[in-house]
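Good morning,

Attaching, inline, the backbone tokens for the sequence recovery test we're adding to the shared suite. The designed sequence is right after.
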């Protein structure tokens, strides 16, 4: 029942949808999947019941994942890299009036928190890569490529205050890592260099210390209020 409800929410109440993963990063190859991400607004009356609507939904399409708008905003305010990148995807598939307003809030989510958040994700990925080496004798090169991409993105975001998703001219260099053409020690050396560059960028970043939580909350309250006014009938049982 809840899975069916979740899929209906994605189909009927998505306000923003984009393509992420290698296609958005400019790193797609012939075999790359199409990873879709979205944001939906659960009708406000659904929150008036004991059983709440889902905070996130997998599907209904293959490689599709969506967040309810409150959950999305909460995670993005914490500088979650996956969600911040969604807001800056160059491959937007859908954005209604609410979705466009969400996109206009992109700068409100950006803050110096990105240093700790992006680095935290990078450290987790490095731990997995080192576990791969101990078990298999080699890392998963695709994951090594994305770790370098993430650290580069963090560095550039701290330097400029702008998040750019597409890797641009770094594409071939990163794909060489994915193909295993770059030795692990060289990859680790690049990681260390990037960490040093992140340190330097963080010391003079134009980003504010904290995200603009009040601006985001005002947006969320208006979305909830509009949804309540548009749905006067009782919500169906979950």
């Amino acid at each position: 029942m809840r899975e069916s409800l979740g899929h209906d929410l994605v189909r009927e109440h998505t306000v923003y949808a984009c393509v992420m993963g290698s296609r958005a990063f400019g790193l797609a190859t012939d075999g790359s999947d199409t990873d879709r991400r979205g944001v939906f607004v659960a009708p406000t009356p659904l929150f008036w019941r004991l059983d709440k609507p889902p905070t996130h939904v997998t599907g209904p399409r293959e490689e599709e994942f969506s967040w309810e708008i409150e959950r999305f905003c909460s995670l993005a305010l914490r500088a979650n890299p996956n969600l911040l990148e969604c807001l800056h995807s160059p491959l937007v598939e859908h954005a209604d009036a609410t979705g466009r307003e969400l996109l206009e809030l992109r700068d409100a989510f950006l803050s110096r928190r990105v240093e700790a958040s992006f680095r935290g994700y990078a450290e987790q990925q490095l731990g997995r890569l080192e576990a791969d080496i101990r078990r298999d004798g080699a890392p998963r090169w695709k994951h090594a490529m994305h770790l370098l991409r993430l650290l580069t993105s963090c560095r550039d975001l701290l330097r400029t205050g702008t998040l750019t998703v597409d890797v641009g001219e770094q594409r071939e260099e990163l794909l060489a890592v994915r193909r295993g053409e770059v030795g692990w020690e060289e990859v680790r050396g690049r990681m260390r260099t990037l960490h040093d560059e992140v340190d330097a960028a963080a010391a003079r970043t134009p980003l504010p210390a904290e995200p603009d939580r009040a601006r985001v909350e005002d947006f969320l309250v208006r979305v909830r209020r509009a949804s309540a006014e548009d749905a006067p009938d009782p919500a169906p049982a979950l």
